[in-house]
Amino acid sequence: MSREPNAQLIAVMGEAMVSNKGLAKRMKDLGAQRGLDLRTTHIAVGRWRDGFGIRPEAAAIMADVLSEKLGRRITPGDLGFFDHTKSTAPEPIGYPSTLPDALSMLDGLTHERADAPAPDQLMVADADLSSAVLSWMIARPDGIQVDKPAHRRVGMRDVRAIREAASLFMQLDFKYGGGHGHKALRHYFREDVLPLLDASYSEKVGTALFGAAAEISQLLAWTAYDVGNHRLAHRYLTSTLRLSQVTDDRMFGARILGNLSHQANYLGNHAQAIQLARAAVEGAKSRATPRAMANYSAMEARALSNTGDGIAAARAMTEAERHFERADTGDDPAWLSYFDEAELMGELCHCFRDLKMRREAVDQAQRAVDSTDPKYARTLGFCRMVLAQSQLLNGELEAAVTTASLAVDGGDSLQSTRFQRYVTDFQTEVSVHAANPAVAAFNEKVHDALTRLDEDDE
């Protein structure tokens, strides 16, 4: 595939009068000061000049290096990275029009590795996104084709096995991050789950079977997202959204829209994140439990907070809390059991942090940390990093570094690109205090943790 050279990066490097080798060395040196082993080479710089993607933490280091060289603030966007306003070919959303199309797409996705090289960003055209959302909103259910002639008859025992497998893989995901079990999960999905959808079953079993298959597919999306393969995650999510249409499972479909919103928000596509979260809220009304509605509203609040719209974000947060007050009145599916009060507080503390509401952010993040079950290691790590960032906003440098250190101590085994980004974002925020002994010790801790993680992968 042909790529256009990154003219912005080339121009800034020219202005700074720095070579590929010189920039690579400066990036490695600055990264080392912050506890990052970037291993940047002149070859990597050349590829970035040629238009290839770059990891967010590397782009941030590069921007800081060039800022120091030129004596003015340079951002990754100034270097042609992650700028959603520039002309870039969007990823076709590929919403399957028929069930066979969806199953064929899912089978194809299971042959793709989540850890394969992939762009760090994802662009989806607004028109494609709106079309997919509308297709789901107005769709008629396909219905289950019962008692098809087939060599195998599926029973509830098979469905229970799939759901138990989903639960086990979800526990691994929460504890070790998405990189740990994705390969085994996609093999299981391809070899043991997808073939059952073409087998023979009753309407009751078929409905449960498609629900269980959608849970596995959703988890494949989530684990791909967690290791940073956003294109693969997005395609799994859109295919899973189509699966929910078979049995008219509006609550699960809305969950997928919420996941798409979460991903869009993470990638900085905040307008799309708001649209997707609102589609989840509207599409599941009267069909979802209060606990599920609280989750959808929390996703909307997260997206609104990132745009700085405090009034709308406060409304969405209030709606999430109001729904959650009635959480115990609904008959929730098993896949929603993780969304407890600690999880809600974790979502809302992100909102207060992004809105720069310093005291509220610290209070809510501390409550989230205190309430999160340690078995949800990744969630606890996220909450601790948000607490650290909130403490830093509040001028509590030593407390922030102590909290971030606890997060790294508890999360250095996580094969989670998202968790690593929380850590590197914090390092960037405290870099102005690089001479502080506590900050220097923290950067060394991060370096050691990443080194151990690399050694574990060998």
The biggest sheet amounts to: none
Oligomeric description of these chains: single chain
Beta fraction: under 5%
Tell me the number of helical segments per DSSP (H or I, 4 or more residues long).
20
Low-confidence stretches: 83-88
Could you say which structural class the secondary elements and strand pairing correspond to? Answer: mainly alpha
Order of helices and strands: HHHHHHHHHHHHHHHHHHHH
Number of strands: 0
| Distance between the amino and carboxyl termini | 31 Å
Helix content: 55-70%
Q: Would you tell me the overall average pLDDT?
A: 89
> What general outline do the C-alpha atoms trace?
globular
* Rg on CA atoms, Å: 23 Å
Please tell me about this protein's structure:
With 458 residues, this protein is mainly alpha-helical. Among the domains are: 73 residues; 158 residues, no CATH class. It is built from 20 helices and no strands. The longest helix is centred in the middle third of the chain and has 24 residues. The two termini are 31 Å apart.
